[in-house]
Amino acid sequence: MNSTRILLIESIDAVGANSRDLRVHASTLLHAGCRVRNAAIESIHAAPLHGAPEPSGDLLVVRPDARGRAKLAAWLENEADAIIVASAAEGGGEAGRWIEAASPLPAWWWPTGVTPASPAAAHAGASRSVAARTARWIAAGPLPMLPITVPSRSVCAGLDASVLDAPHARRGQLPLWDGDYVLSLTALEGAAGTAAIDAFASLCAMYEGLDFVVLADPQSEFERLARARGIGFRVHFAGEAPRDAEVAWLGAASAALVAGHAPVSGGLVLRALENGCAVIPSTGAATAAAIDAWLYAHGIAGGASDAPFAERLAQVVGGDARERTRRAAGQRLARAAGPEALARRVGDALDSALRRRRAA
Fold it and tell me: Phi then psi for 233, rounded to 5 degrees?
């Protein structure tokens, strides 16, 4: 393809996303033959562990406020053929709405994660802090999807179009937890969090040395629930994991749960699978149906689809021969989603979208 000039906007609007994803998507476009300028809208995270990629003349990182929009507006004056908004929110969410209004350039949405089916589903039982962080980014935006996925085969565009980040150092191969554990990739919320605690409690009688580690700050509601179930000493809130430590967490986990309502980065799911970690969305999670549908479509879901959540979790933790086969298949699937592997699909999609735009 010709060297298409792309302004790439990375909206960091899902659990497991950070500004490193900007480089991953830019790399995919570069492999597709595009010339790329990058910007990141940091919508959720402000902590140092979510710092920007290495600074360069082609990079802009802004906050989703008036000052950030002013900076982005000036940056959009760069010459380009098209804009791509990489976002978990459908249609680019708030970022997509603003970009469409701020620039006459053709713009498309690159789906990067799994979002709840509706804002109501996202906030049902959710904590106020999580609801406040995600409220602006859940409603659908106006941008058409870049046709990266094949509609007849896709069951979740945000996972089919996600790109696997390159592997990073495992902190000297040192484990981050002494013993076996089930890992929650998200903060616990509402019915999904309760189902996760209850399912883990059912495992405790079978596995005396098994712990439950939640990659989030302490949550008093669920700490009380764990104590009420008699497993308070086996449930631990380890805080959010930076990307480099995330690999070590995933590589040693018996299973990875999604037990919240916030949007989930597709890259996070791919990184879990690439590290041989089974992913199971908790009953009641707002994104459970979409994640499960994708896992079952690819034959890598743990447990029977009609089995209770606790039973599915027990089957995954048991790690029989079928489970090992599924994990190996998940690793192959994730590794086939690297920047080079997706470059041709992205390039063809962009060419097709531009041709249709010109024809119209």
Answer: -75, -5
Reduce the secondary structure of 87-130 to three states and give it as a string.
Answer: ECCHHHHHHHHHHHHHCCCCEEEEECEECCCCHHHHHCCCCHHH
Look at residue 218 and give its three-state secondary structure.
Answer: coil
What CATH number labels 5-163+338-359? 3.40.50
HEC sequence for 21-42: HHHHHHHHHHHCCCEEEEEEEE
Domain range annotation of the chain: 5-163+338-359, 171-335
DSSP per-residue string spanning 316-334: HHHT-HHHHHHHHHHHHHH
59 sits in which H/E element: strand 59-62
Q: How far apart are alpha carbons 147 and 145 in whole angstroms?
A: 6
Architecture of domain 171-335: 3-Layer(aba) Sandwich (3.40)
- Rounded CA-CA distance 10/17 in Å is 10
Gap between the Cα atoms of 3 and 190, Å rounded:
48
pLDDT of residue 112: 95
| Residue 87 pLDDT | 93
Concatenating the DSSP letter of every residue in 157-205 gives HHHHT--PPPP---GGG--SSSSEEEEESS---HHHHHHHHHHHHHHHT
State both tokens at 281.
């969305």
**pLDDT (0 to 100) of residue 117:** 63
Helices 339-359 and 20-31: crossing angle in degrees, nearest 10, is 70
Structure tokens at 277: 């970690």
Q: Which residues contact 297 (CB under 8 A, 6 or more apart)?
A: 155
**pLDDT at position 136, please?**
46
Residue 125: predicted pLDDT: 42
* Average pLDDT, 10 consecutive residues per value, the chain (360 residues): 84 88 93 90 50 49 80 86 93 89 93 75 44 53 88 79 78 68 94 95 91 95 97 94 85 92 93 94 91 93 83 89 91 94 93 86
